[in-house]
Amino acid sequence: MSAFTRLLARRVDLQRQCRFVPRLLQCDRNFSTTTMSGDKFDFPKRYRGSSESVWVEYIQLALQHKPLNLGQGFPDYPPPSYVMEALQTAASSNPMLMQYTRGFGHPRLVTQLKKLYSGLVGHDLNEQTEILVTVGAYEALFCIMQGHVDDGDEVIIIEPFFDCYEPMVKAAGGVPRFIPLKPAKSGGEISAGDWVLDEKELEGLFNSKTKAIILNTPHNPLGKVFTRQELEVIANLCKKWNVLCIADEVYEWMVFEPYEHIRICTLPGMWERTVTVGSAGKTFSVTGWKIGWAYGPANLMKNVQMVHQNCTYTCATPIQEAIAIGFEKELARMDSPECYFYSIRGELVAKRDYMAQFLKEIGMNPTVPQGGYFMIADWSPLVDKVDMSSERDPQKDYRFTKWMTKKVGLQGIPPSAFYSAPNKHLGENFVRYCYFKKDENLAQAAEILRRWKQHKL
């Protein structure tokens, strides 16, 4: 090809490119005017009204201001060494543990859950049909709601409640009906057991539309352990109105003497109408592992399994294997005080008592928990010592906890996050702290508050 021919060919090619570029730009302009926006892509109706989680907001607040964080509910020191060793073993011993396992629960784990709970509830559980392993207790709750709550079904929620309950009920098409626990006494030392339900008010919520009630015991954030008498009231209403009981029992091993954790599914006539939720994160102090479970009668669990099957399908195999190993170790020493399920109580009760003491010293009024690892305290006696004018939240407890985070260097969680909109005022005078922390960090929290008191009072 001559030089002239090559030049001519190049000119033709450039002309083609010049004609193509405007078309390309026009296509880009046309695309930009038809991007997916407008009402068609609004948030689905089932989630409208949902707001940013308190955890999202307060984690960001902690990252920004770096306070001593007693807000989030997890231990800040290592879990039992054998649990971590079990995960290392699971990750290195068998290559097949790197692959999918059984969708409804790893065989080795559901076998251990069957052994544990069959003895505790007096029912020979079928590990194939009556147990489901989930991505944390969160997913267990989600699958129960989606599997059992239909449009217009009413679900009774006891306040304060863990903040995912309400949006999960609404997302399933249900209608939340709220009833608050209220302190039966004021002034002096208050126990979590002093927070009670009004039985007449509770009875008035049950009707032909009631599908379920959510029961959380031991309770977050109060630390209340429901008594047998209180559980019998709930059970009798469930039987009378043919209502499902969703028992959130993730803190089942953290119950302090002389109190007793009674599983509501063990009461007469309640196995048939109860689905119970548990958590490896709480049981073994490994919240980041995100493994939970649900158990109950096969006819109720089938719905829950079907939702899980079409949601996450299965959970992480090596983590389930490690948890199974942990259960095998603890089940072998259930009769020994060295069993972690029992030793954790003594560890936590000392921390609870220490926190209650230093909160009282600085002028707050704590509610002493009967179980779990959270404590709420009434900070209102100190309200005139706090300048919250820089905060704009409508609830006082949000303003107080944000001010404390920024100005004092100690973070708690605002309990009004655990109430429905009409009842948020019931939580405004309180703050929630987690005491499952290193002793030195609890001592640091006490010192921060003492310095604040000396400076402000």
Widest β-sheet, arrangement of strands: 2-11-10-9-8-3-4
Number of strands: 15
Strand content: 5-15%
Distance between the termini: 95 Å
Query: Percent of residues in helical segments?
Result: 40-55%
Describe this structure in words.
The structure is a single chain. By secondary structure, the protein is α/β, with parallel strands linked by helices. The chain is built from 14 helices and 15 strands. Helix 4 packs across helix 11 and helix 12 packs parallel to helix 14. About 1% of the residues have low confidence.
Features:
single chain; 457 residues; alpha/beta; 14 helices; 14% strand
In short:
This protein is α/β, with parallel strands linked by helices and 457 residues long. Helices cover 43% and strands 14% of the residues.
List the helices and strands and how they pair.
Elements: H1 3-32, H2 54-65, E1 68-69, H3 81-93, H4 107-121, E2 131-134, H5 136-148, E3 154-159, H6 165-171, E4 175-180, E5 182-183, E6 190-191, E7 195-196, H7 199-205, E8 210-216, H8 228-241, E9 244-248, E10 274-279, H9 280-283, E11 292-295, H10 298-309, H11 317-331, H12 340-361, E12 365-368, E13 374-378, H13 396-408, E14 410-411, E15 430-434, H14 439-456
Parallel strand pairs: 1-14, 3-4, 3-8, 6-12, 8-9, 9-10
Antiparallel strand pairs: 2-11, 5-7, 10-11, 12-13, 13-15
Helix pairs in contact: 3-11, 4-11, 5-6, 5-10, 12-14
